[in-house]
Amino acid sequence: MSGKPSDGDERPRLDAASLPDELQRLWDTMLRLDPDWDMFEWLKERATEELKIIDANLVREKMRLEQRIARLEALATRIGRDIELDEGGTRQCNLFDAFGTIHQTEEDVHSDEGAWEPHPASAHLQYLPDDIGDDPLLAVCAQAILLHFEMKAEKEDLPETLEGLGLALVPRGIETDELVEGLEWLLEQGSIIEIDENVFTLA
Question: Bigger pLDDT: 98 or 74?
Answer without folding.
Answer: 74
